[in-house]
Write a structure and sequence with these properties.
This protein has three helices and no strands. It is mainly α. The longest helix is centred in the N-terminal third of the chain and has 24 residues.
């Protein structure tokens, strides 16, 4: 296919990279590492995700970082899931 990377790692990074980066950024922001203003905006998201799954809200940032890693793993195994084709 024209315009698509041919190697699996390149496809995985191109396909799963953006969702993983967004998820990791929200998780990192919820820890306060990027400042209190960003923490105030992202912590409710991380807490809500953790509570939805049935975990304590304090595990939200860690959960999002783990989910970001899982997105990359899934993108490596089945990159077509994240591709628009």
């Amino acid at each position: 296919m024209a315009g698509q990377p041919s190697s699996r790692p390149a496809r995985a990074l191109k396909a799963g990279g953006p969702p993983a980066a967004i998820t990791a950024a929200i998780g990192a922001g919820a820890t306060g590492v990027a400042g209190n203003g960003i923490k105030a905006q992202t912590k409710p998201i991380a807490d809500g995700v953790a509570q939805t799954i049935g975990l304590g809200p304090q595990l939200g940032p860690v959960l999002l970082l783990v989910l970001a890693m899982l997105v990359l793993v899934v993108a490596f195994v089945v990159p077509g899931i994240f591709e628009g084709t």
